[in-house]
Amino acid sequence: MPALICGSLAFDTIATFPGRFAEQILPDQVHILNVSFLVPTLRREWGGCAGNIAYNLQGLGGAPVILGAVGVDGDAYLARVRGWGADTSLILRDAVLHTAQCHITTDRDNNQITAFHPGAMSHAHLMPVPAKAERGDLAIGIIAPDGRDAMWQHAHQMHAQGIPFVFDPGQQLPQFDGAEHREILGLARWVALNDYEARMLQERTGESPEALSRRPNLQGVVVTLADQGCELWVRGARTAVPGVKAERVVDPTGCGDAFRAGLLYGLERGWPLARCAALGNRLGALKIAERGPQNHAIDPSILGAA
Predict the structure, then answer these.
(1) Distance (Å, rounded) from C-alpha 111 to C-alpha 115?
(2) pLDDT at 297
(3) d(CA 269, CA 98)
(4) What whole-number distance in Å separates Cα of residue 205 and Cα of residue 227?
(5) Beta strand pairing status for 140-143 and 112-117?
(6) CB-CB contact of 106 with 253 (8 Å)
(7) What is the pLDDT averaged over residues 103-113?
(8) How far apart are CA 110 and CA 132, in angstroms?
(9) Please, what are the domains in the chain?
(10) Helical residues (DSSP H) of 37-128, grouped into ranges
(11) What string of DSSP letters covers 99-121?
(12) How far apart are CA 7 and CA 90, in angstroms?
């Protein structure tokens, strides 16, 4: 059955800095920070969390339905998504703003500095989650990083429509205060974070991943740990799922989104959470070996190892 993916659609401008950010930033001078990085390589990629998740889910044989927004320059992106066979009926086309733009600089240690222009994404809330009478086939969903109003409204709308969803605040986590996070967490079925986001969410809410996992509505809290895999928290118990060694490490952009596609694919099919996470780890290792978030080929045989 289809999975509703609420999140951003964006164009990624990706640059590579051959040095290390840490060697260019003086810790005792951050109050007057003025840093320039020479980036000899530059490329433009299809991106955005919803687009990346949908690309991976479609590659697995899933059925993504994207709820998001593109701008006046979004025709090519819409054509691309339709070319996969994915559902674009819930993508808003803004007639004034440009599609969101993400500018990412990656250093030699795969640390990233990102600047994001929301553009049409800031109007994504104008496209609501459809009512059950309109789309009763939506089996699962995810609230991925998007416009603040969109994330807030879509979370409440999905809950109202009885669609179980993953809350993935990502880089938009700082846009919500502790009370707002606690409210969304009370609506979600699962939570997905990286280790940095887990610490930030704990600061905002006062709840550790272990404590969050004891909430009666949550069936699991997933904390990704890059190449170390991830940890799962279910009813206060922790399970470690080991990482998958990549053939090569080229570009980490979109690895988290690839992981979440694996998570969604398994959850929609009723798999145990550890099996879903193992598939996500395999997808992340596959993605990191290619440049850009939507250029890796997904062999369906990857499901056999999950």
Answers:
(1) 14
(2) 94
(3) 36
(4) 27
(5) unpaired
(6) yes
(7) 87
(8) 43
(9) 3-25+40-305 (3.40.1190.20)
(10) 49-60, 75-84
(11) PEEEEEEE-TTS-EEEEEE-GGG
(12) 11
Task: Give the separation between CA 64 and CA 142, rounded to whole angstroms.
Answer: 11
Q: Is the pLDDT of residue 31 over 80?
A: no
Non-local (6+) Cβ contacts of 7 within 8 A are: 48, 49, 50, 51, 53, 66, 68, 142, 143, 144, 145, 146, 168
Closest CA to 242 of 254, 224, 260, 256: 224
Evaluate whether 105 touches 42 at the Cβ level (below 8 Å). no
Integer-rounded Cα radius of gyration of the chain: 18
What are the CA-CA distances from residue 213 to residues 115, 216, 233, 253 (Å)? Answer: 32, 8, 6, 28
Q: What is the pLDDT of residues 119-163, one digit of tens each?
A: 999 999 999 999 998 999 999 999 999 999 999 999 999 999 999
d(C-alpha 78, C-alpha 83), whole Å: 8
94 is annotated as an active-site residue: no
Q: Is the dihedral of CA 286, 69, 137, 81 positive or negative?
A: negative
pLDDT at position 305? 65
Task: Write the CA distances from 252 to 169, 248, 305, integer angstroms.
Answer: 18, 11, 22
Which listed residue (73, 177, 257, 299) is catalytic? Answer: 257
Tell me, what amino acid is at 6? C
Token pair of 212, please?
Answer: 């969050």
Per DSSP, which regions of the chain are E strands?
3-6, 10-16, 41-47, 64-70, 87-93, 100-106, 112-117, 140-143, 165-167, 190-194, 220-224, 230-234, 237-241
Bridge partners (DSSP) listed for residue 91? 68
Query: pTM, whole model, 2 decimals?
Result: 0.90
Q: What pLDDT does 92 receive?
A: 97
Structure tokens at 29: 């001078």
